[in-house]
């Protein structure tokens, strides 16, 4: 049997994730979706390096447009928020500038696969993600060969088909603890049944769909695209590649989905290089009409 990387690192991550969920469940009880959302915030905060902030709330453009409502991963070293609460208290929702955002996750305690009228449905969660991506995609692009957001891109003709052609895409996903077919009260425990239902679930595909959908602790969907129009040859990718024919790879991995989530997240944010905030424009906006002549001494 092939020896797994780093002494089965992903399996260990998944086991720790599940144990922590059980521990937090003993405190919150997870009677409501908000409690599961707070638990995911706490786990991500413990897992991620300090550079990455974890917050509940909304992404916001410089024009004031907002989207989201769930969990945002952002650069808290370069883009601090004015939180009055502890970084471990996630009850308060923040507004995070789109320029600061690495990732966004919709959180569903129970994800419903076949009831589009439910706010717990997979289609509703996908639509929420698409709204966030649409706003983040407006931010100024960091070129694929740009070594610093304040400097011009280095000319280069090398092409990379399986990654975005810029360095600051947003990584997005949906995270659920349980899965149901049509009613969130009737959860499905069988991994194979979830797997089969996933094949039959026709998710509307677009450039702004989530990259990863976690269907409980053992099932997940991961993005990819077809290399040819006949849809016979496909390749999975870390991010959605725009203007390609998209698909989702469908997987079952017993008790490993949360470890795979963490690996996808770290892989994505390791690629991302965020751009710059328009600090100069903000200063000029406030100073407009208030300029004075410097004193001469």
Explain the overall architecture.
- This protein is an alpha/beta fold and 297 residues long.
- Helix 1 runs antiparallel to helix 2 and helix 1 packs across helix 5 (257-271).
- The chain is globular.
- The protein has one domain (5-144, 166-275).
- The protein is built from 6 helices and 10 strands.
- The model has no long low-confidence stretch (mean pLDDT 88).
- Strands 1, 2, 3, 4, 5, 6, 7, 8, 9 and 10 form a 10-stranded mixed β-sheet that branches.
- The termini are far apart.
Explain the layout of strands and helices.
Elements (H helix, E strand, L loop, with lengths): L4 H24 L4 H15 L4 E9 L5 E10 L17 E5 L3 E12 L9 H15 L34 E10 L6 E2 L2 H10 L11 E4 L3 E8 L7 E3 L8 E8 L4 H15 L7 H9 L10
Parallel strand pairs: 1-3, 4-5, 5-7
Antiparallel strand pairs: 1-2, 2-4, 5-6, 7-8, 8-9, 8-10
Helix pairs in contact: 1-2, 1-5
Keywords:
single chain; ten-stranded mixed β-sheet; 297 residues
């Amino acid at each position: 049997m092939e020896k797994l990387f780093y002494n089965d690192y992903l399996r260990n991550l998944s086991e720790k994730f599940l144990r922590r969920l059980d521990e937090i469940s003993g405190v919150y009880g997870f009677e409501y979706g908000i409690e599961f959302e707070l638990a995911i915030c706490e786990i991500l905060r413990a897992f991620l390096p300090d550079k990455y902030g974890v917050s509940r709330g909304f992404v916001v453009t410089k024009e004031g447009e907002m989207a989201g409502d769930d969990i945002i991963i952002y650069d808290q070293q370069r883009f601090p928020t004015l939180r009055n609460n502890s970084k471990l208290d996630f009850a308060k929702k923040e507004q995070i500038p789109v320029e600061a955002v690495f990732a966004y996750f919709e959180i569903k305690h129970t994800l419903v696969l076949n009831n589009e009228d439910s706010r717990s449905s997979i289609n509703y969660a996908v639509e929420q993600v698409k709204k966030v991506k649409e706003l983040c995609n407006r931010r100024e692009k960091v070129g694929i060969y740009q070594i610093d957001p304040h400097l011009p891109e280095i000319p280069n003709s090398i092409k990379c088909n399986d990654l975005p052609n810029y360095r600051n895409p947003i990584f997005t996903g949906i995270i659920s603890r349980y899965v149901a077919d049509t009613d969130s009260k009737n959860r499905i425990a069988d991994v194979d049944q979830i797997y089969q239902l996933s094949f039959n679930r026709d998710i509307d595909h677009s450039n702004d769909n989530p990259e990863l959908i976690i269907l409980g602790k053992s099932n997940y969907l991961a993005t990819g695209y077809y290399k040819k129009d006949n849809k016979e040859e496909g390749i999975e990718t870390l991010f959605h590649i725009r203007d390609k024919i998209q698909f989702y790879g469908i997987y079952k991995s017993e008790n490993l989905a949360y470890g795979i989530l963490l690996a996808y997240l770290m892989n994505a944010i390791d690629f991302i290089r965020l751009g710059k905030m328009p600090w100069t424009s903000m200063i000029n906006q406030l100073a407009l009409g208030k300029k004075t002549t410097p004193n001469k001494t």
